[in-house]
Design brief:
This protein has about 850 residues and is α+β, with helices and mostly antiparallel strands. About 40% of the residues lie in helices and about 20% in strands. Among the domains are: about 1-190, tricorn interacting facor f3 domain (Immunoglobulin-like, Sandwich); about 305-435, Neutral Protease Domain 2 (Neutral Protease, domain 2, Orthogonal Bundle); about 725-850, Peptidase M1, alanyl aminopeptidase, C-terminal domain (Zincin-like fold). The chain has an eight-stranded mixed sheet, with no helix packed on it. The radius of gyration is 28 Å and the shape is globular. The protein binds (3S)-3-amino-4-(1H-indol-3-yl)butanoic acid and zinc ion.
């Protein structure tokens, strides 16, 4: 397959300032007529090359006349043109109902919709499908009125009318030039939850969340989140919405979370629909975050887009940083930071340490869809956050103002963004730019030594080798740190921001009156792994006294991790320090419940594995279960008190009520882990009595991990109650795939044959295959059955939906981290995938790179 390289970027040969599209919509056969006004870019004689994927031209005209001499080259339409400006018209026919890839124009539950990012537009019509070609769009759609009464596209509605034979039409114009990946249309039998928003300059914007009639009652939360996002972007970034309407449509079949098409966002329904009976607090939070994320793209992505796909993090990293800041402002900023760091460690750190590691600005790709990764999104957001930390909030805002003003209406680069930070921030970011070019998670060792009333802190950094990058240069690491007195618990001076730029650096603290304890990387100021010479007593002390909530959480996690890693190595069960630290946190009246709940959860099996040279999934599971059991038993009274003290008797979506539900679910888990006789009944009573999905699913998960006969009863009651609700059925599959029981592999293989299971719906595929492959113990079962099962499923899925299949492949690629037997079994499955006839380039790229 063809490798695309960043260094080969060339400006386009032809611009397309205007495009008129005419869709005659029909699920089986849709006619697409496109009229492109093209202008030659510079002095060259190259023909117009329009990308196409699976299209056959029914007609090609130039300036109104049937064109001569055009040809097809690998699916692309090549049209020789003589002058500097022409109108090129094409006509094609496509079949949305046969589009199982869900790229381009496709059908989902009777709705016709589009997904064009990254390269789906070329499956709809011939066009220069690259993000630096910006055009003004006029779109006309005609469709059967009974089946598709609502016709939506980007921009503002211009006109609509009746056609012949029960058909009707609508026309939409988008005045803002945009790349074709932001094109969208939707046709369906939809209803809207409508609202309006008055912008900072006093314009009224009509808002609509479009869904099928039965789902209308589940759209209030998304609409409220949209209004909050619009107000937040004005207040925090000075960014105002620019069209008269903003529409969101929810569809059930979607390869990703959502899509920021100009004025017409299309969403995976799981990020729109919520009511207390069907959505958990996690779902509610994710909806608000994703609605905000897509809305924020209107400026960071749409008004300023990417010059080429290597710059993807320009829009995605910045927009994730913006949505994280938004969500932090809506509730507990500390808990939000903990969640974001946990997510980074769960998905980005392993990616950075594995065969698919790539820089935030990659150098090459085969299939761009494979690069919508945690590195581009989440590490990219951390890179923006570090610039925010280095500049401070005021200068950072001046820098984003400059960026928005200077690059509005253009396709920009990561370099353009950093240059604005440098210029407005008055800082030199030359060395900092390595965050865009070097892959791999930096490691920092921090050793604090006392000598004669002085403390000497030695900091050393290194960046591990990654594929294609064996030698690394030192990075700029912004490390927030502070010292605390071990006896008095008092802060010894203010927090400092240290910019570590060298391989090694030393800091000296003078006139210390007591033994200091180091608090470092406070707030997770740099996305790095920190190793320190702190003792268990130091960590326990920080977990109780640090005044930075993230550092407090981190100290507890480190204490737990050190304990677990030691147990895995020695089989020992020296749990006393962790038990006391958890007791202190659990009983500290100054802490809020949401924070306590985060702080007392043990690191995941996978994260424990990430600390080991060779991952031993069974030993990790045993060590973690033993610690859970001891915590459950030793703190039995405290867990009961936390459980009983947090009974919410009427559902409310507020930070306090969410915190209560979270601690309740964590406490229930520990009560069950202790082996308490009444635990299954307690869980079952919570399951049957719950007035919300958070409590119901929390209880179901606890039962699903256990051996009680109530497990089957709860699972089948859940299935019966929600059998017609796809999003909740996903939870049913996922809960079983994540179970810690011995028989999870067999259960999951049986579920793949369940009548409600289908690979055609990405959410369903992810709920079973995706969840199972992150269940470290079950997936890595010594029999190798887990690997075989996942590979079988991915080979089948690749035929239907290559993007979704390729996204689920990385867990199989982590073979180097496991023992020789498991590693060989994983490699054998990767080889089987690579050898599959007709394999997509999506899966080929992921699997072949994973074999290296
Ligand atoms: N910008 C959107 C990316 C996206 C996407 C990428 C590949 C394949 C399908 C996709 N659907 C949406 C989503 C976002 O980051 O906001
Ligand atoms: Zn995005």
């Amino acid at each position: 397959p063809h490798v695309i390289r960043r260094e080969d970027y060339r400006a386009p040969d032809w611009w397309v300032p205007e495009i008129a599209l005419d869709f005659d919509l029909d699920p089986a056969a849709t006619r697409v007529r496109a009229a492109l006004s093209v202008t030659r870019n510079g002095d060259h004689a190259r023909p117009l090359v329009l990308d196409g994927d699976g299209l056959t031209p029914l007609s090609v005209k130039v300036d109104g006349v049937e064109a001569q001499g055009w040809s097809l080259n690998g699916g692309n339409l090549v049209v020789p043109l003589g002058g500097g400006a022409h109108v090129v018209e094409t006509e094609v026919e496509i079949a949305p109902e046969r589009n199982t890839q869900l790229e381009g124009l496709y059908a989902s539950g009777g709705i016709l919709c589009t997904q064009c990012e990254a390269e789906g537009f070329r499956r709809i019509t011939f066009f220069p499908d690259r993000p630096d070609v910006l055009s003004r769009y006029k779109v006309r759609m005609t469709a059967d009125k009974a089946r598709f009464p609502v016709l939506l596209a980007n921009g503002d509605p211009i006109a609509q009318g009746e056609g012949e034979g029960g058909r009707h039409w609508a026309e939409w114009h988008d005045p803002f030039p945009k790349p074709c990946y932001l094109f969208a249309l939707v046709a369906g039998d939809l209803v809207a939850n409508t609202g309006s928003f008055r912008t900072m300059s006093g314009r009224d914007v009509q808002l609509g969340i479009w869904v099928r009639q039965p789902d209308l009652a589940k759209t209030d939360h998304a609409l409220a989140a949209l209004k909050l996002s619009m107000a937040w972007d004005e207040k925090v970034y000075g960014r105002e919405y620019d069209l008269d309407v903003f529409n969101i449509v929810a569809v059930d079949d979607f390869n990703f979370g959502a899509m920021e098409n100009k004025g017409l966002n299309v969403f995976n329904s799981r990020y729109i629909l919520a009511d207390p009976d069907t959505a958990t607090d996690y779902d509610y939070d994710a909806i608000a975050t994703v609605v905000a994320h897509e809305y924020f793209h209107n400026w960071s992505g749409n008004r300023i887009t990417c010059r080429d796909w290597f710059q993807l993090s320009l829009k995605e990293g910045f927009t994730v940083f913006r949505d994280q800041s938004f969500s932090a402002d809506q509730g507990s900023a500390a808990v939000k930071r903990i969640e974001d760091v946990r997510g980074l460690r769960a998905s980005q750190f392993p990616e950075d340490a594995g065969p698919l590691a790539h820089p935030v600005r990659p150098d090459e790709y085969i299939e761009i869809s494979n690069f919508y990764t945690a590195t581009i999104y989440n590490k990219g957001a951390e890179v923006i956050r570090m610039m925010h930390t280095i500049l401070g909030p005021t200068k950072f805002r001046e820098a984003t103002d400059l960026y928005f003003e200077r690059f509005d209406g253009t396709a920009a680069t990561c370099e353009d963004f950093v240059a604005c930070m440098e210029e407005a921030g008055g800082v030199d970011l030359e060395q900092f730019r390595r965050w865009y070019t070097q892959a791999g998670t930096p490691r920092v060792s921090a050793d604090l030594a006392m000598d004669n009333g002085k403390a000497r802190l030695t900091l050393r950094q290194s960046v591990p080798a990654t594929p294609g990058q064996s030698v690394k240069e030192p990075m700029v690491l912004p490390l927030k740190l502070k010292l605390f007195g071990a006896e008095t618990g008092r802060a010894m001076g203010d927090e400092q921001l240290v910019l570590l730029k060298e391989d090694t650096s030393e800091l000296v603290f003078e006139n210390l009156t007591e033994q200091p304890v180091l608090s470092i990387n406070r707030g997770f100021s740099a996305p790095v792994v920190v190793e320190t010479n702190r003792t268990a007593a130091d960590l326990a002390f920080l977990s109780a006294h640090d005044d930075d909530p993230f550092a407090r959480y981190e100290a507890m996690q480190q204490l737990m991790l050190d304990t677990l890693v030691a147990s895995v190595a020695s089989g020992g069960t020296d749990h006393g320090a962790v038990i006391e630290a958890v007791r202190n946190t659990l009983t500290d009246p100054a802490l809020d419940r949401a924070f306590i709940a985060e702080a007392v959860v043990l690191p995941s099996d996978s994260f424990i594995g990430d600390q080991m040279a060779v991952v031993d999934p069974d030993a990790i599971f045993r060590a973690r279960e033993a610690l859970r059991r001891d915590l459950g038993t030793a703190l039995g009274d405290q867990w009961r008190a936390a459980y009983e003290g947090s009974i919410a008797n009427r559902f409310e979506y507020s930070p306090a009520a969410k915190g209560a539900r979270r601690i309740r679910s964590v406490a229930l888990g520990y009560i069950a882990a202790s082996g308490a006789q009444d635990a299954p009944q307690l869980a079952f009573d919570q399951f049957t009595g719950a007035d919300n999905m958070t409590d119901r699913q929390g209880a179901l998960s606890t039962l699903a991990n256990g051996q009680s006969p109530l497990r089957e009863q709860a699972l089948s009651a859940f299935y019966d109650r929600y059998r017609s609700n796809g999003l909740v059925l996903d939870k049913w599959f996922q809960t079983q795939a994540l179970s810690s029981r011995d028989d999870t592999g067999e259960v999951v293989r049986a579920l793949a044959a369940h009548p409600a299971f289908t690979l055609a719906n990405p959410n369903r595929a992810r709920s079973l295959i995706g969840a199972f492959s992150v269940n470290q113990r079950a997936f890595h079962h010594a029999s190798g059955e887990g690997y075989r099962f996942v590979a079988d499923q991915l080979i089948a899925l690749d035929k239907l939906n290559p993007q979704t299949a390729a996204k689920l492949l990385p867990p199989l690629g982590r073979w180097k981290r496991f023992d020789a037997r498991r590693g060989a079994a994983m490699r054998a499955e990767l080889e089987r995938i690579v050898a599959t006839p007709g394999l997509s380039k999506d899966s080929f790229e992921q699997a072949s790179k994973s074999l290296d």
